[in-house]
Each structure stands twice: as structure tokens, then as C-alpha cells.
Amino acid sequence: MPFNGSGTFNVYTPGNPISNGQTSDATLFNNTISDLASGLSNTLTKDGQTPATANIPMGAHKITGLAAGTTSGDAVRFDEAITTANISTQVVASVTGQTATGTSLIQAASAAAARTTLGSTTVGDALFVTASASAARSTLGVTTDNAEISVTAASTTDIGAAASSNILITGNTTITNLGAVAAGTVRIVRFSGTPILTYNATSLILPGSANITVAVGDCAQLESLGSGNWVCRSYQRFTGQSLISGMIRTSDVTPVPNNAVGVGITASHAFGVVPSYAVLEYLCLTAEQGYSVGDVAILNSQWNGTSSNSLNLWKSTTQVGAQPSGSTVFMLAHKTTGAAFTPTAANWASRFVLAA
User: Fold this and answer.
1) Domain range spanning residue 178?
2) What is the pLDDT of residues 67-90, one digit of tens each?
């Protein structure tokens, strides 16, 4: 064996070394040449004729003059490696230079696709932890600190394509779709208008399985299910009232109808469904017929001058109303005696109490 296992080449011993005048033995000479050839065949050639057959320890020495890697399996130079000193440079370079399938970041021209792949601009922001974070976000098209972005209400209000997870939807156009984006994408939405969110059991799943008539200031958390389908995980009324449960009291309206035959009272609500319960209240503003200021009377009758009948109430998904029939008008009964009377218009305010 020419090499001793530790890198030392041992010359073939029999017949070596020889002295001047000594006759050479053919067998010994040929064995020496064969040993030299065997040793040379176990070395790495500089022109790359032979590959290494085992790991090569460098003994704490460097490989210098290495060319930059260009394909999978190439060695990486120091200036190509991600280090604390050059992380921001490498991240930005990756964003602007990498286009191959499987790379962790996508070039600037594909920023929209990158945001779709990431599913959330928050994830994109989290990649950048150096002083170059702002520049890197700009390269990806991500809004600094996820600032709220305005999107105009339309039949398809594409909140998935917005470069922020915080969205302000403006306008009043009815919304039936929120656009296609990767499943798991979450958008926090605030409304400055009053559009209707149209319920769909597949593409726009809403609480209560019903349309939502939006009020200014309402907020919602919406999550993409993929393929253009969304689910509303939570919905908060600006007023703090529950979306489809609990009771509400409509705004006070004064004066009330007084001896106005056939004149009804209506009010709007934002349940989005027909209320399950409705009652008409009269709030006393000026003492009358035994009532004190602040007293509330429940209006459940109508008067035609000689007799009373039950009050007719009607309800829809957006409004509620009370309507006298025929020649009747709204009436109350004296607080203590029960005598019927028609309330003085300016002394009372009307309002409805509703439950979804």
C-alpha cells in the first residue's frame, strides 16, 4: 500500500534504495513503478478527472478561490451564506433575484403572488428583522406595519388582494363575494358605509345564516376558506349590540300621531332578519292622564271614537311598524282609571322594542 492511511506515501522497500553500480532487478523495478502508479491513482487531479471517494478533512484550513454556486448541490461561498453581518443584503437579494420553483421568497415582479402564497402580510413582515425591513416590505409590496387599506364596496369586494390584513370597506354597494386568496388568510374589516353582506352557505358564510345590513363603524373578522369562499368568524356592531340576538330599542320619535286617522308609525332596524318580538312604547315627555315624565306606556290598542281594537304591528328584515286600521287612531288608557284617551302629540315620544 503506497499510502499508510495517514497521508504518508511509503516507497516500495524491496530493492530500494539502490546504489551506484548495482544491477537492477526487473521484478523489483517493476514493483516500484507499480507502487508509484497505485499511489498517484489515489490522488485528486486538479482538472477534475477523479472525484473524491470519501470525506476530506481540511484540518482547520480554508478552501479559497471558490466560484459562486449556481445550482443545487454546489458549494456555498462565505459571501453567499446568510450571516448576521449580511442577512439584510441576502434577504433583499433573494426577494429580487430568485425565480426558481421552491425558493423561499419571490421576486418583486411576483409580489402579489407572494402575498397570496404567504396568505398574510403579517407573515411577510415577520421575515424581516433588520434595519432593511422597511425596504424589504416595500419590495414585496407589503404596507408598513399593516396600516388599514381602503377597498371600495362592490359585488366582488376583493379584500384578499389587498396588501394589508386590516381593511376599511367604503361605499354602500351590496357585497356578494370577497375575492379568491389562499385558505387561512384572515382580514380584519371595518365599514364606513352601509352595504349589505349577502349570505351564501358556501361562498359567504355569515352568523345566523342570513344577510347582514351593515351599519357605519361595524367590524368583522373574515377568514378565507380558499377557492373564493369566506367565513365570518366574528361580527361586532359599532353600537355594541348583538348582531342577531338580544333586544334593542329604536330611537325616540316625537311628536306622535294625534287623532290622525290611518297615520302609522315606522322605524328601521339592523337585525337583517324579521324580529321575533316587537312592541310599541310611548315615552311620557309631559305629564298627562296620570302619567309622569319618564313613564313608559305600552301601546296595544287603537280607537275609533266609540270602541277600541287590538293594535296591528308589522315586521320585515329592515323595518317595523304600527298601523291603525279603518277610521281608528292610536290611543292610551289613563294610568290609574283605565279611561281611554288619545295622547297629546307633543307630550309623548314613540319607539319600538325589538328582539331578533
Assistant:
1) 148-236
2) 988 888 888 888 777 655 555 555
